[in-house]
Amino acid sequence: MQFLRDSLTKKAIFLFTTLMTALVIVAVVLFRKGVVSVPVSVFAGTILGVLILLLLVFLLDVMSPLGRVAREVRNLLGGKNYQRVPPTTIDEIGMFTHFFNEITRDLEKISYDVRERRRMTSELDIAAQIQRDVLPKTAPESPGLDIVAKTRAAAEIGGDSFDFLKTADGKQTIMYIGDVTGHGVPSGIIMMMVNTIIRSMLSMGVSSSKDLVVSTNALLAPKISSRLFMTMVMLRWDAEHQKMFYTGAGHEHILVYRQKTEKVEAIRSGGIALGMIPNNAMIAQEKEIPLEVGYAICLYSDGLTEAKNKTGEMYTLERMVQSLQKNGYYPSAESIFDHVSKDFSAFVQEYVQIDDCTMIVIKLTGKDAGAKMKMAINDERTRTATASKIWDWGT
Fold first, then answer.
1. Cα–Cα distance between 286 and 299 in angstroms, integer?
2. How far from chain centre, in Å, is Cα 159?
3. Per-residue pLDDT averaged across 6-29, rounded?
4. Residue of 93, 169, 352, 376 with fewest CB within 10 Å of its CB?
5. What is the reported pLDDT for 381?
6. Which of 92, 232, 241 shows the shortest CA–CA distance to 175?
7. DSSP letters of 40-91?
8. Strand partners, 173
9. Is 384 exposed, middle or buried (0-12, 13-18, 19+ CB in 10 A)?
10. Tens-place pLDDT, residues 127-176
11. Strand partners, 164
């Protein structure tokens, strides 16, 4: 009887055929017995009884399961509690029942996913705020230096970092820029770990950039996966003697604009990224950067040099050097920063940011000049718009 279960049309045809067959059989039997007439009441009663029987079959087999599904659909649309309806047939009603059950399962999964996404978004917002709070808003006075530092994350949580800190004796300023592989939550966690370690080391009296890099690596390496690491270049500014020193940890070049020659020197930072090996003491070195008043230093993350325009062409280190060479003569770090940023924006144009971008410009103004510093971190407004015809830092 499979064909009766898989279609309402077949079921209706079968019932109609059964009714007509029964009537024909009754008529034949009556005719053979010589009954040529039947009272109207008997005939009508028979027909009515058969119709009632068919109606009961229809109600039990069609309307009852359909009514159950319709009731649960009303509950679903009305926002009330609903239940799935177990299919009892494989006809159109059974298909409709199965469809309702699958839809409600999908809705429940979507509802769960939405709740989870809201929870994760809320937690990411909190983590992003914590990270923004970790990044510096102000910096200690560094006599002789004019500094501008800005960063813009590619996601809620960024992997780029920078900071400006005083040594425990207050005589020197430590500055660094770092870039954790990738971006997102894992990168953000490592960035905050490094930031905390460096601050702890400084409070314990560590003052040279080499010792800070070595100590940070020794504490970080055992705690993270070898696939995650952080490149860094750290500067140490001796305000009393107006000297700048650096230690590299596998980061990008240090760009130095020399006012006398109006040329830019790209110094390899050297070293190896933090977290890649347990002990980098034999690799890390602290070296001096010879500077004079009017010279400028530019530190950056690879989110700038590896940014692409709409044709897929990268900005590159060469373009960064050319831009600094063209704009390094400006008297303030802010003006240099702004003009280099404009060159970058003109190149990338409708650039969709795929990596964190950070840049620091330091202008040597002389021992008698007052220290100036400007820092900015991209905010909630810019995280929702990573594509712009005119790329900016969003601050």
1. 17
2. 12
3. 68
4. 169
5. 39
6. 232
7. HHHHHHHHHHHHHHHHHHHIIIIIHHHHHHHHHHHHHHTT----------SS
8. 166, 237
9. exposed
10. 666 666 666 777 778 888 999 999 888 776 667 889 999 999 988 999 99
11. 175
Contacts of 38 (CB under 8 A, 6+ apart): 30
CATH 3.60.40.10 in the chain is located at: 144-388
User: What number of H helices and E strands is found in the chain?
Assistant: 11, 13
CATH match of 144-388 with 3.30.565.10: no
SS3 102: helix
Q: How confident is the model at residue 216 (pLDDT cuts 50, 70, 90)?
A: very high
Tokens standing for residue 128: 């992003």
**Rounded-to-integer distance, Cα 59 and Cα 70, Å:** 14
Asked if 195 and 130 touch (Cβ cutoff 8 Å), the reply is: no
268-291: pLDDT as tens digits: 999 999 999 999 999 999 999 999
> Is 241 in contact with 161 (CB distance < 8 Å)?
no
Cβ neighbours of residue 5 under 8 Å, at least 6 residues apart?
Answer: 89, 90, 91
CA distance 305 to 205: 35
Q: What is the pLDDT of residue 225?
A: 78
pLDDT band at 367 (very low <50, low <70, confident <90, very high): confident
CA distances (Å), 337 to each of 2, 98, 165, 347, 364, in order? Answer: 79, 63, 21, 16, 14
Strand, coil or helix: what is 17? Answer: helix
Q: Distances from the Cα of 162 to the Cαs of 106, 145, 350, in angstroms?
A: 45, 16, 27
CA 322 to chain centre: 33
Q: What pTM was computed for the model?
A: 0.69
Q: For 7-28, what is the mean pLDDT? A: 68
Pair of tokens at residue 52 = 């009632």
Residue recorded with tokens 């058969």: 50
Contact 330, 266 (CB under 8 A): no
